[in-house]
Amino acid sequence: MTFFKLADPGFWEQIRQEHGPAGGAYQLVALEYEKPVVVQRFLGADVEGVLYIGKADSYLDRVIQLKKSISPQYAGKAHTCGRRYKSNPAIALKFPYELLHLQFFPSDQPELLEKEMLSQYFQRFGEVPPLNAVH
User: Largest alpha-carbon pair distance within the chain?
Assistant: First the structure.
């Protein structure tokens, strides 16, 4: 599975080339030396390092909001994940912007796929990913 680095200058073009106007679900993860940063969860360690699970009818439209809301250069608050990320400075220290990547899961039914992914995560760890709202 391909990861797209938020801080990469070619981020938008890579997503456009790979997915065009398509959508589906996506995950935000932190990768350090090409390996996920482990996230401690209530029922165990998430070795895949999932910080957020979201959905988009069009990746480009929704991911623009996500990237801007997390980026240190923007003050935008258009995306819940970004608001939560910036609400506690310790989060950015543990998971710096330069390590954040997106992973995409194309689907014609993004809402259903997101719900399924959140449900599976909840069943496995007893809670949703740390930057998601309450399940």
Answer: 38
